[in-house]
Amino acid sequence: MDDLYRSPLLPWLSPKGPEGDVVISSRVRLARDFDRMPFPDRADTNQLAAVKKTVSALLPAIEKSTGQVFDLVDMDSIPPMEREVLCVKHLASPSLIKQPEHRAVCISDDRCTSIMINEEDHLRIACMEAGLELERSLQRAFQIDDVLEARINMAFDEKLGYLTSWPTNLGTGLRASVVMHLPGLAFTDNISSIINISPQLGLSVNGLYTDGHQVIGNMFRVANRLTLGFTEEEIVSNMRDAVQEIVDQERRARKALELHDRLRLEDRVWRAYGEMRFARRMNSGDALALMSKLRLGVDLGIVDNLSAEFFSELLIVNREDYLKNLAGNEELPKEEIYQLRAEIVREALQRYALPQR
Amino acid sequence: MDDLYRSPLLPWLSPKGPEGDVVISSRVRLARDFDRMPFPDRADTNQLAAVKKTVSALLPAIEKSTGQVFDLVDMDSIPPMEREVLCVKHLASPSLIKQPEHRAVCISDDRCTSIMINEEDHLRIACMEAGLELERSLQRAFQIDDVLEARINMAFDEKLGYLTSWPTNLGTGLRASVVMHLPGLAFTDNISSIINISPQLGLSVNGLYTDGHQVIGNMFRVANRLTLGFTEEEIVSNMRDAVQEIVDQERRARKALELHDRLRLEDRVWRAYGEMRFARRMNSGDALALMSKLRLGVDLGIVDNLSAEFFSELLIVNREDYLKNLAGNEELPKEEIYQLRAEIVREALQRYALPQR
User: Fold this and answer.
1) pLDDT tens-digit readout, A80-131
2) To 10 degrees, the CA torsion angle through B305, B307, B312, B316?
3) How far apart are alpha carbons B85 and B320 in whole angstroms?
4) What are phi and psi of B302, to 5 degrees?
5) Three-class SS state of A124
6) Please, which pLDDT band fits residue B1 given cuts at 50, 70 and 90?
7) Could you read off the pLDDT of B54-67 as tens digits, one per residue?
8) Nearest Cα to A65, choosing from A125, A14, A3?
9) Which residues, including other chains, have CB under 8 Å from residue A350's CB and lie 6 or more apart?
10) Other CB atoms closer than 10 Å to residue B196's CB: what's the count?
């Protein structure tokens, strides 16, 4: 497998998943807490150490059940920049690395599964897949949960279900989410209708990246709002249907753009390509906006000399913390970050070039 | 010589003139009117015809004196689109083509001299040169004027000088102007100081292209305000000095950009290149803004794989009327104009590419 800290590649960001032209990735996360043990923010050092020890001891059983090899990474054993890279790659969370002592994460060899230890809950099992694959993500999370629950008494109430550090996770402890790329709806000014209707569908829809006011890069995280009163399968199945509906709307919007505004669309796409090929300095929002336009062009066949994989790689590379680690300098000045980003974007477009038809 | 209506090339737009990195072109124009003959807007058909006939008959003498061959183009003998092309190329003026009957222009074979007949004055002699070459332009205009004045009685008053249809031309009938490219002053926000000081220098400074509010493309026309009270040589010499001062300021501004903002400058230049290489649709203002950035990059050696000649050609090609004539369709829809412009810009960048060092 690629180097965890130096490689930007993640299989679950591949454009080849189901509905991969619109759904970038699916993720299911289960929150679990040990019975009769304070939540991590109230647990003492011995208790945190005990939790970590118990889970570590179960890794061989998890590996046997999943057929995957896991790395156990102690947060206090790696430099701060590498912790940040794990956050950029969504294999760890900001909460996990805030106080690194006795915090750890088990990461599968394919980088699609992460089990965080002593995050807000004692355990957070997260399974990622490329495209719209919520059911498979849920299955994989259950596979790990089964191993753990067979050996650990989890905090569970007959009426409420799983007890978690935040009440929003009570019940199933489930958070299912997908990241969608919706440039068609954005360029046709139809994003707000999706966002407005989402609460009725039991969903939250939020811009993945914003500049504080506006969504940048046309990517949205769609997640369940309810964790209580439904089974995990019901939640995931309802969500899959709602996401599929948004996928269909996005495709209709793209068709409309192709039909009614083809020249302007091609111009946007190709200018984005031109800027990315030649830029010398690029901030993060600028990169996301350009990447979004170019990815749309690749998905629609307007640009046929580039693999959509460029997008998966740049989603990670674009992040400031990734670039700092790459340069080996935590204090890398802004201007040098901008310059490095532009260099890598230029280089990636050449590396992902396809032979011209 | 290239086709007058189909070729965008004009030697006086070449980047190779003196101070050609900042001064695009120089122009001297003399206004002359026949004595005891109403100005063209008050002259009757017979009078206009007589003026045209007299001047036409003197063309052989002008050719002999200048060593240039002249084409006499009757405005009512060419289609409206071709009249517009002559305006785009600054060889005719909108006033000349408004009422084409009995209006004509004599154009030298090198396209650097134009003698308009029955424009606002009976005669407008214009001589263009690449770069800062006002003296030579004046000499060439005098050469033609000498031939004409030896054979025609011009309206002249001992005290006022030449009498012209507009009082602003009284005296010398001279308008000297240069077109300057000032991206350095523009990007360092120093344009307004040039514009503010220009009246004290006896100059007018105006954006060559504006969108009604803002100057587009960082090109400015600098012209004399006074035509009375100085000799032609004094006017031209004063103006040359003032222009040289602006040239020096522009070069200092470019140096400052290179020194203090190199990365941002390179980024601007190369993104402009990228957009121009790949755009599919381009309006006129967009093209001018991109051309200006790229030309600056070529002049500063940031872009070393492109000849500055691209700029000279695109200055003409960019104009809507030129594109309509090229497409052979006076009613060419806006979207097709945008598309054609982008095609030609893309193609020009490839044609003017230099072998990479």
Assistant:
1) 999 999 999 999 999 999 999 999 999 999 999 999 999 999 999 999 999 9
2) -50
3) 10
4) -70, -45
5) strand
6) very low
7) 999 999 999 999 99
8) A125
9) none
10) 10
Amino acid of residue A352: Y
Q: Touching check for B71 and chain A: CB below 8 Å? A: no
Sign of CA dihedral A228, A232, A234, A240: positive
Q: What is the pLDDT of residue A212?
A: 85
Q: What is the dihedral of CA A155, A156, A157, A161, to 10 degrees?
A: 130
Return the pLDDT at B168.
Answer: 86
User: Which one of A266, A267, A305, A345 would you mutate to disrupt binding with B, by most B Cβ within 10 Å of its Cβ?
Assistant: A267
Is any Cβ of chain B less than 8 angstroms from the Cβ of A209? no
Per the structure block, which two tokens stand in for B205? 């400074």
B271 → chain A, closest CA residue: A275
pLDDT of A204 > 60? The answer is yes
Q: Alpha helices, DSSP H only, in chain B?
A: 45-66, 80-88, 94-98, 134-149, 183-187, 191-197, 232-260, 262-278, 284-299, 309-317, 320-327, 334-351
Phi, psi of A304 (to 5 degrees): -110, 10
CA dihedral B339, B343, B344, B348 (to 10 degrees): 150
What is the per-residue pLDDT across A13-60, written as a single tens digit (0 to 9) for each? 999 999 999 999 999 999 999 999 999 999 999 999 999 999 999 999
pTM over 0.95: no
State how far residue B19 is from chain A, nearest Cα, in angstroms: 29
**DSSP conformational letter for A109:** T
